[in-house]
Amino acid sequence: MDRVIKTIPCDAGTLYVSCDGRRVKLADCKAAVEVIETVNELPTLGKGRVIKKRYASLLLTFDHEVSYSVDFQTVDSFLFQGDFLRKDGKLERLTFSRCCLLSDLDLTGSGQCEFEIECSNDMLHKLQLL
User: Fold this and answer.
1) pLDDT tens readout for residues 95-111
2) How far, in whole angstroms, is CA 5 from its chain's centroid?
3) Residue 67, Cβ neighbours under 10 Å: how many?
4) How many angstroms separate the most distant Cα atoms in the chain?
5) What secondary structure letter does DSSP report for 73?
6) Helix locations, the chain, DSSP H
7) Which of 26, 74, 101, 120 has the smallest CB count inside 10 Å?
8) Which residue in 125, 124, 105 sits closest to 57, CA to CA?
9) What is the reported pTM?
């Protein structure tokens, strides 16, 4: 069973694509990062559970129609950059350079999409502390 353990809103999000080694801005967007755990309950052994996987998911919403000049046949990868509010009140800009598309990329007004963020355990820990 998957469960969201933390949702982190993002200010000033930007989605980029990488095409032939060039980074091209695709769209400004609203975003949230969800830290998710895949767990198995162990009812026969008490109230414990086994955490099988922990990962981050990036949820994007586009405010308006996106006009782009990208040939999606040449896209190598997706990148995301955004400002996240830390507990001390400061904004921290984070960049996720390996985003794997999990849904349709809906670039229409109020369109939404979801990416899995490939990140290290250190980054997952950092996201949980934001």
Assistant:
1) 999 899 999 999 888 89
2) 14
3) 7
4) 56
5) G
6) 121-129
7) 120
8) 124
9) 0.85
